[in-house]
TrEMBL record:
<dbReference type="InterPro" id="IPR015590">
    <property type="entry name" value="Aldehyde_DH_dom"/>
</dbReference>
<keyword id="KW-0560">Oxidoreductase</keyword>
<dbReference type="InterPro" id="IPR016162">
    <property type="entry name" value="Ald_DH_N"/>
</dbReference>
<dbReference type="Pfam" id="PF00171">
    <property type="entry name" value="Aldedh"/>
</dbReference>
<dbReference type="InterPro" id="IPR010061">
    <property type="entry name" value="MeMal-semiAld_DH"/>
</dbReference>
<protein>
    <recommendedName>
        <fullName>methylmalonate-semialdehyde dehydrogenase (CoA acylating)</fullName>
        <ecNumber>1.2.1.27</ecNumber>
    </recommendedName>
</protein>
<dbReference type="InterPro" id="IPR016163">
    <property type="entry name" value="Ald_DH_C"/>
</dbReference>
<dbReference type="InterPro" id="IPR016161">
    <property type="entry name" value="Ald_DH/histidinol_DH"/>
</dbReference>
<keyword id="KW-0520">NAD</keyword>
<dbReference type="GO" id="GO:0004491">
    <property type="term" value="F:methylmalonate-semialdehyde dehydrogenase (acylating, NAD) activity"/>
</dbReference>
<dbReference type="InterPro" id="IPR016160">
    <property type="entry name" value="Ald_DH_CS_CYS"/>
</dbReference>
<dbReference type="GO" id="GO:0006574">
    <property type="term" value="P:L-valine catabolic process"/>
</dbReference>
<dbReference type="GO" id="GO:0006210">
    <property type="term" value="P:thymine catabolic process"/>
</dbReference>
<feature type="domain" description="Aldehyde dehydrogenase">
    <location>
        <begin position="14"/>
        <end position="478"/>
    </location>
</feature>
Length: 509
C-alpha cells in the first residue's frame, strides 16, 4: 500500500501541523510501516475547536431538514465508497475485510436511523398551565463537541458520535485512534465531496494532550469517548472541573452463559463469532463462557473442535477468518495474560501463541484462538479485560450462580444466555447486572434505533450512544413559559371593547 502521511482536517482543509512530531503507522497483518501519524500540538487542537465554534452559529440556524439532507448525502457517499472505506479498516486496523465491510454497512444504518432526528428532536407543550399561560420545551444544540475513538472500530464510533451531534445542530472535533486513522482520511474527503460546510466536522490526531486542550475551552460543550475505563474516568474528571458533558464508554468482561437446554449448534456458531470476531478486540466479545455441569464437557469439546478450524492470517485474505491484533505490544500483552492463566492454575486446552502463518505474515501481530478451562472467578484472566482471542471456561452451578458472578464484576457491558427455557430467559434479562443482554446471540449489540452502552465501570456518566440517548446527550432542553394576553383595547380574542365584532388573529403577526 502507498505510504500515507496522515494529516489533520481543519475548517474543510487538509493541513499539517508544523509543531507536530510523527509516529509510524503499521499494517498489523505484515508489521510493515505504511505511514506516519502526527502527534499534534495543543495549538492545532485549539485551532480545530475554533473552526468548529466559528461554524456553529450558521450550522445551528440551518433548517433541520437541510441538516438531515447532509446526513442523507453522507450515507450515500459511504455506500459509493464502501469498498475503499472497508479496505482502509482492513489495512491499518486489520479487521478481516468481510467484517470491515460489515462495519461500514452498520454505520450506513446508523446514518439512516439518525435521519429520524426531526422526529426525535420534537419538544413538548403543555397548554393552560394557568389562565392564559402555556408551557413549551424545545431541544437545542449546545455548541462544539469533541470525540475520541478507539482503534478497534474506526467507522462505528464515527457513526455513534457524528451523525447525532451534527444532525442536532452541533459542530464537532474528532480524534481518531493513532493506530487506525485511515478510515477518517477518506471520510474527510467525503465531507468535501458532499459539500458539508467548513468547520462543521474537524479531524485532529495526537496524544492525550490534544484532548486535554479541550477541557478549558469555553467553546467545548462536552466530550465523547469509546475506550478503556481508566481513560473514561480521566476524561470525566477533565470535563467535570468545567461542567462539561461527557459520554464515555469504557471496558468490558462479557459472559456467555450456556444452560443445559441450549441448542449447542447455535451456541457454537455464535461463540466463534463473539470470541474471535475482530480478533476478540471489541467491547462485546464473549470472554467468559459459563457452563452448567450437565453440558460442561460436551461444550468444551465442541468449542475446542470449532476453534481449531478458525483460520488466522492476513486481514485481506478472503480465505481466513481472523486477522491479527492491533500492535506488537498488544500481542505481547495478550501472551502475558496466557502465561498468567497457566501460572494461575487454569487448564490451557488450546494455545493460540505462534499460530501457523504464511511467510508474508511472519512479522504480523497474530494470536490464535486460545481456550482455558477450569477457570475460577478469582483468577486474573477471569477478571481483567484481555482484549484478544482468549476465552475462559467456567463451570457454574446454576443460573443464580452466574448471575451472582456477573453482579460482582467491576464491568457491566453485556452478557448473553443460550437457552430454550422461557423462565431462564426472563430471569436473565431481568437480573443480569449489565447494560445489554442477549438471548441465543453471541454479540448483544443493539440495532441503531436503540441505545448502546453498559453500566458500572463500562459506562462513565449517564448517556449511552445512538438512538434517543444520543439525541438527549447532544441537546439541551429550553423551557418557555408564555402568557397570551389580548392586544390593547381587546377584552378577549375577537371581541373589541367598543363592540366591534371584526375578527383579529390570536397568532402573532
Amino acid at each position: 500500500m502507498e505510504f500515507t502521511r496522515v494529516k489533520n482536517f481543519i475548517n474543510g482543509e487538509w493541513v499539517e501541523d508544523p509543531k507536530a512530531t510523527y509516529i509510524p503507522l503499521h499494517n498489523p497483518s505484515t508489521g510493515e510501516v505504511i505511514g506516519e501519524v502526527p502527534m499534534s500540538s495543543t495549538e492545532a487542537s485549539i485551532d480545530a475547536v475554533k473552526a468548529a465554534d466559528a461554524a456553529f452559529p450558521a450550522w445551528k440556524n440551518l433548517s433541520i431538514g437541510k441538516r438531515v439532507g447532509y446526513l442523507f448525502a453522507l450515507r450515500q457517499a459511504m455506500l459509493d465508497h464502501q469498498e475503499e472505506l472497508a479496505v482502509a479498516i482492513a489495512t491499518d486496523q486489520a479487521k478481516h475485510i468481510s467484517e470491515a465491510r460489515g462495519e461500514v454497512m452498520r454505520v450506513v444504518q446508523i446514518f439512516e436511523a439518525a435521519c429520524s432526528i426531526p422526529t426525535l428532536m420534537q419538544g413538548e407543550t403543555l397548554g393552560n398551565i394557568a389562565n392564559g399561560i402555556n408551557g413549551r420545551v424545545t431541544k437545542e444544540p449546545l455548541g462544539v463537541f469533541g470525540g475520541v475513538a478507539p482503534f478497534n472500530f474506526p467507522a462505528l464510533v464515527f457513526g455513534w458520535f457524528i451523525p447525532y451531534a451534527i444532525g442536532t445542530g452541533n459542530t464537532f472535533v474528532y480524534k481518531p485512534s493513532n493506530e487506525s486513522p485511515l478510515f477518517m482520511q477518506i471520510i474527510g474527503d467525503i465531507f468535501n465531496e458532499v459539500g458539508l460546510p467548513k468547520g462543521v466536522v474537524n479531524i485532529i490526531h495526537g496524544d492525550p494532550n490534544v484532548v486535554e486542550a479541550w477541557y478549558d475551552r469555553p467553546e467545548v460543550a462536552g466530550v465523547c469517548l469509546v475506550g478503556s475505563s481508566p481513560t473514561a474516568k480521566a476524561i470525566a474528571q477533565g470535563c467535570g472541573k468545567n461542567g462539561k458533558r461527557s459520554m464515555l464508554l469504557g471496558g468490558a468482561k462479557n459472559f456467555l452463559v450456556v444452560m443445559e437446554d441450549a441448542n449447542m449448534d447455535v451456541f457454537i456458531e455464535n461463540f466463534i463469532h463473539s470470541a474471535y470476531g475482530s480478533a476478540g478486540q471489541r467491547c462485546l466479545a464473549g470472554s467468559i463462557i459459563a457452563v452448567v455441569p450437565e453440558v460442561y464437557d460436551e461444550c468444551i469439546e465442541r468449542m475446542v473442535e470449532a476453534s481449531k478450524k478458525v483460520t488466522v492470517g492476513d486481514a485481506m485474505d478472503p480465505d481466513i477468518y481472523m486477522g491479527p491484533v492491533i500492535t506488537k505490544a498488544a500481542k505481547e500483552r495478550i501472551e502475558k495474560y496466557i502465561e498468567l492463566g497457566i501460572e494461575g492454575g487454569s487448564n490451557l486446552v488450546l494455545d493460540g501463541r505462534s499460530p501457523e502463518l504464511p511467510e508474508k505474515n511472519k512479522d504480523g501481530y497474530f494470536v490464535g484462538p486460545t481456550i482455558f478451562t477450569d477457570v475460577t472467578p478469582c483468577r486474573t484472566i477471569a477478571k481483567e479485560e484481555i482484549f484478544g482471542p482468549v476465552v475462559s471456561v467456567m463451570k457454574i452451578n446454576d443460573l443464580n450462580d452466574v448471575l451472582g458472578l456477573i453482579k460482582e464484576q467491576e464491568f457491566g457491558n453485556g452478557a448473553c444466555i443460550f437457552t430454550q427455557n422461557q423462565y431462564y430467559t426472563e430471569k436473565f434479562i431481568a437480573d443480569a447486572n449489565v447494560g445489554m443482554v442477549g438471548v441465543n446471540v453471541g454479540v448483544c449489540a443493539p440495532h441503531p434505533y436503540l441505545p448502546f452502552g453498559g453500566i458500572k465501570d463500562s459506562l462513565v456518566g449517564t448517556n449511552k450512544v445512538q438512538g434517543k440517548d444520543g439525541i438527549e446527550f447532544f441537546t439541551q432542553n429550553k423551557v418557555a413559559t408564555i402568557r397570551v394576553t389580548p392586544p390593547e383595547g381587546v377584552a378577549e380574542c375577537g371581541t373589541r371593547v367598543d363592540g366591534d365584532k371584526s375578527v383579529r388573529s390570536c397568532v402573532a403577526q
